[in-house]
Design a protein that fits this description.
2 domains, membrane, about 475 residues, transmembrane helix, mainly alpha, Polysacc_synth, PolySynth_Transporter, Flippase, single chain
C-alpha cells in the first residue's frame, strides 16, 4: 500500500513539474512563435550540460544511498551532508565554467544569463533525499505551490516576443525557490552532525560511476536539440522541443514508478530479499506496459488533430515528429522498469551504465545523417533507435536472472488492444471535426475501448485487480 501511495504522490510530482509548460505551451506558442521557442530549447540544452557536470550522478546515487541508511538517523544525517556538500562544490565549479562559456559566446548572452539561475538552483536540489526516505508528499505540495506561482507569473509578465528572457528567468527562479522550500522539512529526519567527521571524497567515485550513464542519457535527451539548432535551424529545435514536451508529460505518469520503486527495491535488496526484488520487477513491468501501450498508440492516433489545436498551425511540422517519437513512451517505460527499478537497486551499475552508453553512441552515430536528411523528423527517428538499443541491452543483461516468460506475460494482448484502439481512434480523428470536444471524445472512447479489450482478452493484471477488489468487498 505504501508503494501505491508513493506512486500516486510521485506521479503527481512528475506531472506538476511539467504542468506549467503543458498549460502555458499553447499561449507561449502564440506569443513567442517557433523562433522564440527554439531559442529557449537551444539555450536550455546547453545549460543542461553544465547542470549535468555539477550534479555528478547525485540524483540516482543519493536516492539509493539514503534508502540504504534511512533506518539509522546518525548515518542518515552524515550521508546527507556528505552528498549535499559534494554536489554543492561541483555545482559551483560548473557555474564558473558556465560563466567562462558565456564570455566566449557571442550569441544569446541575455538568454544564457537567464538560464544560469537554473544552474544555481541545481545546487540546492535535495529531492533525492526525500525520494530515498520514500516521502513524496513534501515534494508534491512544494511543486503545487511553485507551479501555480509560475503559471500566474508567465501570464502576467510574458506578453510579446521581447519577453523571452523574462519567461526563461521565471522558469529558472521557480526551480530555485522550489528547491529552497524543501530545506525546512529536513529537520524531521536529520540530527546533529560534526562537520569534521564528514568524508565527502568517499562518495565521489560511486556517484561518478552513476554520472557516466547520466551523461549518456543527457546526450540522447538534449543533444538532439543542440544539433538541430546548430545544424538545421532554431525553428527545427523548437519543433522537436514541442514534441518532446508532450512526450515527457505522458512519460511522467509512466516513469513515476521508477523513482518510487528504486528505494523500495534497494531496501529489500539490502535485507537480502532477492526473490522479492524479482517479483517487484515482474509486477512493475506489467503495470508500466499496461499504461504505456495505450499512451503510445493513443498519442500517435490523435496527433494530427492535437498539434494544430494545441500549438497552432505555425507548428504543424510537429505532427510527424510526435507520431514517431510516441514509440519511445513504451520503450522508456520498459527501460525504466529494468534499469531504475531492478539494475540500480540491485547494484548492477555496470550493466545500467553500458546500456545508456550504448544508447548515446547509437544516438550520436545515427543523429548526424538522419538530421542532415530529415531535420527534426530525423532526430525523432534517432531517438527511437537509441531507446531500442538501451532497452535491448538491458533485457540481454538480465537474461540469466529473470524469466522472460514472466516478464512479458500478456505482452501480445496489450499490443493487440493498443493496435485495436489506435485503429478506432485514428478513424475517428479523420472523420470528426477539428475541435477540442471531438478530441476529448476520441481520447475517452479510446480509453474505454482499450479497457474493454483488456477484459475481453483476459489479461492477468486485470484478473488480479478484480480478485483483489472481490477480496476487499468480502472483508
Amino acid at each position: 500500500m505504501r508503494v501505491v501511495k508513493n506512486y500516486l504522490y510521485n506521479a503527481s510530482y512528475q506531472v506538476f513539474i511539467l504542468i506549467v509548460p503543458l498549460i502555458t505551451t499553447p499561449y507561449l506558442a502564440r506569443v513567442l512563435g517557433p523562433k522564440g521557442v527554439g531559442i529557449n530549447a537551444y539555450t536550455n540544452s546547453i545549460v543542461q550540460y553544465f547542470i549535468l557536470f555539477g550534479s555528478i550522478g547525485v540524483s540516482l546515487y543519493g536516492n539509493r544511498q539514503i534508502a540504504f541508511v534511512r533506518d539509522n538517523q546518525a548515518k542518515l544525517t552524515k550521508t546527507f551532508y556528505e552528498i549535499f556538500l559534494l554536489r554543492l562544490g561541483m555545482i559551483l565549479l560548473a557555474c564558473l565554467a558556465f560563466g567562462l562559456f558565456i564570455l566566449l559566446t557571442p550569441e544569446y548572452k541575455v538568454f544564457y544569463l537567464a538560464q544560469a539561475v537554473s544552474l544555481l538552483a541545481a545546487a540546492f536540489d535535495i529531492s533525492w533525499f526525500f525520494m530515498g526516505v520514500e516521502n513524496f508528499a513534501v515534494t508534491v505540495l512544494r511543486n503545487l505551490v511553485i507551479r501555480i506561482l509560475t503559471l500566474i507569473s508567465i501570464f502576467i509578465f510574458v506578453k510579446t516576443t521581447n519577453d523571452l528572457a523574462i519567461y526563461i528567468l521565471i522558469l529558472s527562479l521557480s526551480l530555485l525557490l522550489g528547491n529552497l522550500l524543501l530545506f525546512p522539512s529536513l529537520s524531521k529526519y536529520l540530527g546533529k552532525v560534526s562537520f569534521k567527521t564528514l568524508q565527502l571524497g568517499k562518495h565521489f567515485w560511486p556517484a561518478a560511476v552513476l554520472f557516466i550513464p547520466q551523461i549518456a542519457t543527457q546526450i540522447y535527451l538534449v543533444l538532439n536539440k543542440t544539433m538541430l539548432g546548430a545544424m538545421t535551424s532554431i525553428q527545427a529545435a523548437g519543433y522537436f522541443d514541442q514534441s518532446d514536451k508532450m512526450i515527457k508529460v505522458v512519460l511522467a505518469v509512466v516513469t513515476a514508478t521508477g523513482t518510487v520503486m528504486l528505494p523500495h527495491v534497494a531496501h529489500a535488496f539490502a535485507k537480502g530479499e532477492h526473490e522479492k526484488t524479482r517479483e517487484c520487477l515482474y509486477q512493475s513491468f506489467a503495470f508500466v506496459t499496461a499504461l504505456s501501450v495505450p499512451m503510445t498508440f493513443g498519442l500517435a492516433a490523435v496527433t494530427s488533430k492535437f498539434v494544430p489545436l494545441f500549438f497552432t498551425q505555425q507548428f504543424i511540422s510537429v505532427v510527424p515528429i510526435m507520431m514517431i517519437e510516441a514509440v519511445v513512451i513504451l520503450l522508456i517505460a520498459w527501460s525504466n522498469a529494468l534499469g531504475l527499478q531492478y539494475l540500480l537497486p540491485t547494484k548492477q551499475n555496470k550493466a545500467f551504465t553500458i546500456s545508456v552508453v550504448v544508447g548515446a553512441i547509437v544516438n550520436l552515430i545515427v543523429n548526424i545523417p538522419l538530421i542532415m536528411a530529415y531535420g527534426a523528423v530525423g532526430a525523432a527517428i534517432a531517438t527511437v533507435i537509441s531507446e531500442v538499443a538501451v532497452t535491448g541491452y538491458q533485457l540481454w543483461s538480465v537474461r540469466k536472472q529473470i524469466s522472460y516468460r514472466k516478464l512479458f506475460t500478456d505482452i501480445h494482448k496489450y499490443l493487440l488492444a493498443g493496435l485495436g484502439m489506435f485503429g478506432l481512434v485514428y478513424c475517428l480523428d479523420i472523420v470528426w471535426a477539428e475541435n477540442w470536444l471531438a478530441l476529448a471524445g476520441e481520447i475517452l472512447i479510446g480509453i474505454v475501448f482499450y479497457l474493454i479489450l483488456l477484459v475481453f482478452l483476459k489479461v492477468e493484471l486485470v484478473n488480479k485487480l478484480r480478485g483483489k477488489l472481490r477480496h476487499a468487498k468480502e472483508n
